[in-house]
Amino acid sequence: MKKITIISTLFCLCILSIKATTYKVSNMIEFNEKVKTLQPGDSIVLSKGVWKDSQLIFFGEGTKEQPITLTVEEHGKTTLEGLSNLQMYGNYLIVDGLVFINGRTPSKEVIDFRRGTSKTANHSILRNCVIDRYNNPDRAAQDAWVNLWGRHNTVEYCYFGGKTNQGVTLIVWPNGEGHNQNYHRIYRNYFAARPRLGSNGGETIRVGTSHVCEQNSNTIIEGNYFERCNGETEIVSIKSCENRIIDNTFFECEG
Questions:
Q1: What whole-number distance in Å separates Cα of residue 250 and Cα of residue 228?
Q2: Computed from CA positions of residues 9, 125, 89, 237, in that sequence, does the dihedral angle turn out positive or negative?
Q3: Per residue in 122-175, pLDDT tens?
């Protein structure tokens, strides 16, 4: 009986793995068609080249064992330029290898872990991504490069460099039901070249706001490298409780 059970289990696992599909897309029309069909284990791959003025909305319901992935055909060979951004929502999503250069976000954020106020990403990962000098030419115009909503999300092995306009580089929002006690993780990222802004609103990371400063966020900021992050006197602004700041390196930062 044990042999039959083991064989049956392996057969079921094989069926699950066979169902996973990779969709390679070459334009926004194809992306918008395929993203609606994504099932646990599936991947959607952006083809090599410049994706100009591409406003990606990535969503799905993956599982811990079979997340849904948005990635690129070849790292460094696919760029999102012009007026491009990303909104993501659902569960167990992975975004891997996106590069934002030569433009600015058409909204208030480049990468947002939610769509609207009710659809958020949870148990999701932003990995190996780049936002490089992706600025509004008006230094007084405010935007954030990454907004973390939901719960149990991770930002890891990313590069964020050269933000010159107003607004925090990466914000954790422990604001309201579904976002407080979020247990996010910001791990081994490279934050670079944030020149002096000359006013408030130039933090590199902010966890919370003054309105929720007594609530728990439980965010971990670990092993990150901060180089010349001089936007303002606060480099990492902690405005919530029960966060852990571990083994980060600050090189030639004025804050």
A1: 8
A2: positive
A3: 999 999 999 999 999 999 999 999 999 999 999 999 999 999 999 999 999 988
Reduced to 3 states (helix: H, G, I; strand: E, B; else coil), residue 252 is coil
- Residue 86: what are its φ and ψ, rounded to 5°? -140, 130
Query: How far apart, in whole angstroms, are the C-alpha atoms of residue 2 and residue 45?
Result: 40
Contact 21, 44 (CB under 8 A): no
Q: Write the burial class of residue 158 (CB in 10 Å: 0-12 exposed, 13-18 middle, 19+ buried).
A: buried
- Token readout for 190 is 């490279």
7 vs 202: CA distance, rounded Å:
58
Residues 6+ apart with CB under 8 A from 124: 67, 88, 90, 91, 92, 93, 94, 95, 113, 150, 153, 154
- Quickly count: other Cβ atoms within 10 Å of residue 243's Cβ: 19
| Model pLDDT for residues 179-189, shown as the tens digit of each residue | 888 999 999 99
Q: Residue 191: in which H helix or E strand, if any? A: strand 190-194
Query: What is the reported pLDDT for 200?
Result: 85
Say whether 180 sits in a helix, a strand or coil: coil
**CA–CA separation, 86 vs 125, rounded Å?**
13
The one-letter amino acid code at 229 reads C
Contact 240, 208 (CB under 8 A): yes
DSSP 68-112: EEEEESSTTSEEEEEE-EEEEEEESEEEE--EEEEEE-SSSEEEE
Q: Which of 142, 150, 154 is nearest to 174 (CA)?
A: 150
